[in-house]
Amino acid sequence: MSGQSITDRIAAAQHSMTGSAISKAVCKATTHEASAPKKKHLDYLMHCTNELNVNIPHLADTLFERTANQSWVVVFKALITTHHLMMYGNERFIQYLASRSTLFNLNNFVDKGALQGYDMSIYIRRYSRYLTERALSYRLVAPNKTNGSITLMKTLPIIQNQLDALLDFEASSNELTNGVINCAFTLLFKDSIRIFAAYNEGVINLLEKYFNMKKNQCKEALEIYKRFLIRMTKLSEPFFAPSSLLEALEQHLASLEGKKMKDASTVSRYLKLYWNSGCRSMTNTNVKPDE
């Protein structure tokens, strides 16, 4: 899988003939190459979400169709592309995803016919569940914009569920073995910082209101706080490596400056260390879970 397959080239040519630029870009972003989707294709699709004449359901459905492929590479890259558009595309893309009752049908996905197929299929199933939870969280949290104690007690469990789904990905550094899973991990790492910051800020706001709550509210708030501590322990128990994170960041800057960069898997391991640290330095960041 060192290059585009004949199937990829034929599919792209067909979309060119039918004049479907979006379908062609989705096809090119989700080729059989075992590498991350190319930036130029992601940028084009991201730009499309900002165009009022673009049919967002058509774009989403084209991505969903790619997840019906038998190749773990194509399916994984379709999920990555969807995740990228959820993060960086126009809000109406995630709004559409949140309006759907179901997103992916990958709970039983297995690619038994390819190198790494079985192992990567495990992460595809976990990843698709996280993206579904992310869309659900957006739908449930969006109507709640205030910081009242009742609203916080409704939204914090939603954020908690999203964090749980993200942590369930559970890829160790030894399993970040190709550009596809590394790309997914990077997006999840970025999401983990945002979710943690929103979760932490919400709990702080809840505790500030705790001593003015009624008894039943106090009981509920206390349970939320206990669950928060469990999640923070899960994030921070393994190890804390700020120097490793620093080296990863320095290596990234060096790559942007055209200097020699360490192997991508090494940098991913540094990010893995930092993710498991609980992102302690982010406790005061004012970021909402789906911004």
Automatic annotation (TrEMBL):
Q: What is its main location?
A: membrane
Q: State the UniProt keywords alphabetically.
A: Cell membrane, Membrane, Phosphoprotein
Lineage top rank: taxon:
Eukaryota
Q: Which InterPro entries is this protein grouped with?
A: ANTH_dom (IPR011417), ANTH_dom_sf (IPR014712), AP180-like (IPR045192), ENTH (IPR013809), ENTH_VHS (IPR008942)
* Family matches, as CDD domains: ANTH_N_AP180
Name the Gene Ontology biological process terms. Answer: clathrin coat assembly; clathrin-dependent endocytosis; synaptic vesicle budding from presynaptic endocytic zone membrane
Pfam family name, one: ANTH
Q: Where is the ENTH domain?
A: 14-145
One GO cellular-component annotation of the UniProt record comes to: extrinsic component of presynaptic endocytic zone membrane
An example of a GO molecular function for this protein is: 1-phosphatidylinositol binding
Where, per UniProt, does this protein localize? Cell membrane
Give the family, as the similarity comment puts it: Belongs to the PICALM/SNAP91 family.
- State the name under which the record lists this protein: Si:ch211-200p22.4
Organism of origin is Sinocyclocheilus grahami (Dianchi golden-line fish)
